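Example for tutorial group B:
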């Protein structure tokens, strides 16, 4: 069986094709076998007011597609432009690999996989922002 396997903690919520589903009192495992299902773990969701950095903004666009708040056709071009913009900053081999994976996933309509690849850049972005703040700090 192929597809996505979700391992859910007790009371964890997940959005599947626009429906919020809450796990019961025990850990559980769900196998999503429907291709193209839109899935978003709500613990990983970025709230609109948190989408203030370049990577978070691009992740938020992918998230809007997954949540059904925007259509894929309208958002994919914006998503690809955002990924292109990130490629100007994240030039190391691993980041490039993640950006390439996100681009391929968008091209295949696999928005969850695109979001997953983009989320790997969040800690790197945090480090870059922290380093810039230290660099710009007056003595």
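The residue assignment follows.
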């Amino acid at each position: 069986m192929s597809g996505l396997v979700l391992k859910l903690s007790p009371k964890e919520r997940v959005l599947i094709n626009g429906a919020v589903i809450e796990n019961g009192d025990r850990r559980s495992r769900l196998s999503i076998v429907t291709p193209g299902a839109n899935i978003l773990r709500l613990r990983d969701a970025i709230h609109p007011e948190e989408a203030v950095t370049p990577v978070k903004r691009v992740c938020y666009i992918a998230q809007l597609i997954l949540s059904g708040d925007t259509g894929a056709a309208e958002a994919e071009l914006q998503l690809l432009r955002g990924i292109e913009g990130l490629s100007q900053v994240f030039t190391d081999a691993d980041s490039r690999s993640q950006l390439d994976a996100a681009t391929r996933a968008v091209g295949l309509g696999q928005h969850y996989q695109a979001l997953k690849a983009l989320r790997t850049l969040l800690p790197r972005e945090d480090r870059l922002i922290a380093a810039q703040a230290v660099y710009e700090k007056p003595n």
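The two ends are 59 Å apart (CA to CA). Compare this with the pattern of hydrophobic and polar residues in the output above.
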